[in-house]
């Protein structure tokens, strides 16, 4: 009986998904949109900025390295952004995070999409057993996200805007050698999925897209884990394209690369021990310990 009910529920779910009207994505949706992308001086954030620029968005960039921000800004202008601004800020300082939103309001007059992407303050390797390393990661990778969200809430309400949060497999599945990073990503998943649920009940329209990413070929990732894991990295350009599209269409979640991420999440729910064992083969311990 139970099995039949589950099968039936699955069938209904699949049909609903199949017949649900899928909105098609077009550059027109992005033209004139005011977007803040954090961590946009390199990596996936930089690529997302280019993606938004190509489609004519107004951009606010932010990170710590001013020279890099200037280079990204110039490229965004060439690609066709409606306007580009940047603000130098260190996200380990929550006052700076607040100021980034104030600057966004001052420069663009509002905000339509908040893309929370920056990452810092952690290293891949065995847990050092210090509280400082965990606090540092939580400050940069979790609390600053929350602060930016709180500061931007009114602007997003005004514009009926949305939030995109960059998470990771490490925010869904426990993994070794990035404990403080993983803790921050799990915290993000908890905070933003709970916030989404609460907003819905309070009938406040604030779509939240969580992007669950696998291994992406940014310089940072290749340098920190390139010789330590066996997996092959996926393209940061394609990743940025998929995340931007998912955010603009206000998907609940984006998985990238889909076939490397989604099946593992599903299998881990069903067979956690087996998946842990299989995943353990992915680490080159001789290069880590
Ligand atoms: N690459 C992957 O394999 C992978 C996998 C899963 C998830 N992700 C997620 O994807 C996102 C982007 O990662 P990525 O690979 O593109 O990293 P990345 O290339 O290292 O970029 C990180 C960005 O964050 C900025 N940043 C670092 N520390 C900061 C601080 N204290 N204050 C302000 N900005 C700071 C950096 O700029 P400055 O140094 O100039 O400040 C840079 O612009 C992250 O959320 C990451 O967790 C990546
Ligand atoms: C944090 O940033 C604010 C404003 O940007 C600055 O006044 C303050 O000195 C910073 N705090 C630290 C500890 O760097």
From TrEMBL:
It comes from the Eukaryota. Residues 1-26 form the signal peptide. InterPro entries: 11-beta-HSD, NAD(P)-bd_dom_sf, Sc_DH/Rdtase_CS, SDR_fam. Pfam families: adh_short. Keywords: Oxidoreductase, Signal. Transmembrane segments: none annotated. The keyword Lipid metabolism does not apply. GO terms for molecular function: oxidoreductase activity. Belongs to the short-chain dehydrogenases/reductases (SDR) family. PANTHER family: HYDROXYSTEROID (11-BETA) DEHYDROGENASE 1-LIKE B-RELATED, HYDROXYSTEROID 11-BETA-DEHYDROGENASE 1-LIKE PROTEIN B. This is Hydroxysteroid 11-beta-dehydrogenase 1-like protein A. It comes from Python bivittatus.
């Amino acid at each position: 009986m139970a099995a039949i009910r589950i099968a039936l529920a699955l069938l209904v779910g699949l049909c609903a998904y199949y017949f649900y009207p899928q909105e098609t994505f077009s550059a027109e949706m992005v033209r004139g949109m005011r977007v803040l992308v954090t961590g946009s001086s390199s990596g996936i954030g930089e690529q997302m900025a280019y993606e938004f620029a190509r489609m004519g968005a107004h951009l606010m960039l932010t990170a710590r390295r001013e020279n890099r921000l200037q280079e990204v800004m110039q490229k965004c202008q060439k690609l066709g952004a409606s306007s580009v601004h940047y603000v130098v800020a260190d996200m380990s300082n929550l006052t700076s995070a607040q100021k980034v939103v104030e600057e966004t309001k001052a420069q663009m007059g509002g905000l339509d999409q908040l893309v929370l992407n920056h990452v810092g303050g952690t290293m891949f390797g065995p847990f050092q057993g210090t509280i400082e390393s965990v606090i540092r990661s939580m400050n940069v990778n979790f609390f600053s996200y929350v602060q930016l969200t709180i500061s931007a809430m009114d602007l997003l309400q005004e514009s009926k805007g949305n939030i995109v949060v960059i998470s990771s497999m490490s925010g869904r599945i426990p993994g070794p050698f990035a404990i403080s990073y993983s803790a921050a990503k799990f915290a993000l998943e908890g905070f933003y999925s709970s916030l989404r649920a609460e907003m819905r009940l309070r009938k406040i329209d604030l779509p939240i897209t969580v992007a669950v990413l696998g291994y992406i070929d940014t310089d940072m990732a290749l340098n920190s884990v390139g010789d330590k894991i066996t997996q092959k990295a996926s393209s940061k350009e394609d990743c940025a394209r998929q995340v931007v599209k998912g955010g603009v269409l206000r998907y609940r979640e984006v998985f990238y690369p889909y076939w490397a991420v989604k099946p593992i999440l599903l299998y881990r729910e069903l067979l956690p021990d087996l998946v842990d064992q299989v995943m353990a083969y992915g680490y080159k311990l001789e290069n880590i310990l």
